[in-house]
Give the backbone structure.
Amino acid sequence: MNQLLSEKFNLTKKINYFLILFLPISLLIGSAISNIVVLLISIIFLIELYQRKNFSLLNNFNFFFLIIIYLYLILNAIFIAQNQDSIVRAVGFLRFIILSYAIFYYLSFFKKKIIKFWFVIFFIVSVDIVIEYFLGKNSLGFSSDYPGRIASFTGDELKIGHFYFGFILIALAFLSNKKKKIQIITAILFFILALIIGERSNFLKIFIMYSLFFLFYFEISYLKKFLIFIFLSSLTFLIILKSPVLSSKFYNHIFENYYEMFKKGETIDKDKFIQSNQHFGHYYTALDIFNENRIFGSGLKTFRIESFKDKYNSIDKFYGQSTHPHQIHFEFLSELGIVGYLLIISNLIYILRINIIHKKDFLIKAAILFLVASLVPILPSGSFFTSYGAAIFWINYSFLIKRNRLETVK
């Protein structure tokens, strides 16, 4: 019996090992495949814990904190949102919480192999981005219909910038034991590719992560840190300046309208400010929804419903209507209210606080910077509750789970 149990334990461990290796690839293939992979990893992980008759890994404050958030999402979906899609989303969200603990658990056995394989995937994606940038199509023949955007393996969904944002520091973790010159050169090459992908918000988040990484974590002199920061800033400016498409995306879409209004002596009132940028319209609508539903919000995944109501679109319906507010703070506030916002933000602050002084593990540093960049106000973001964005978020979150119940296998 003990031998049979041991064989099952080894089998489940091996299956989940290969599924975790495949996880980034599944994100590139599409939501249906990634959802299946995430669900399988979560279920097999729980089966393994059951076979071992040991759930101590889940017996900690942070896991219970996440379960409280999960229960709030369900109650919010049932009693506030009151629609089937919200309830399904809320119930299914548990898979991402379990995913984070599963990755944390299996990293203790296969850390080097997993990070090495993920680096190879990221490197292949990077090469594919270069191919598409110069040839107009990626290695599979995919191309972007959106000027200045790279599609790569995500095709029409144009989500490769988010993938790059989520995995760039994880990929660099593989090189953390290499010489400083190799780390710096590779980091700069990845940085350039992040820029030419053409996604403003994800690039700016990567810029923030890089700046904080070199300032606080990279062990070189402050003079070299300053020179690297100046170099990256100058490189960004020159690449944008030399590319008409990037200049349009980073300058014209943000500043040109204000500059034209200023030249004409026009007053930039609320309506013109909102109409000058599509994301501002989403933010404004989200704040309107929050102001009418301060405590519990309008309900999980209901922005796509509420934003189309006439009372929230007095300025311009096109700018207010969307599937989500395109900003993580506004999404929490409008859909979950102040209660949901404080629960989620408190957990993120807690998990950052218990890890912030950790200076040895590169993955912990990477995850800290990812969470910090994800929480930057104003910068647009994908929905926190979509499968693609959630998977990337909880992969990074898994590196921050406190190692108080499991010995890490080097």
Observations:
- The two ends are 30 Å apart (CA to CA).
- Residues 1-5, 405-410 have pLDDT under 50 and may be disordered.
- The first helix runs from residue 2 to 29.
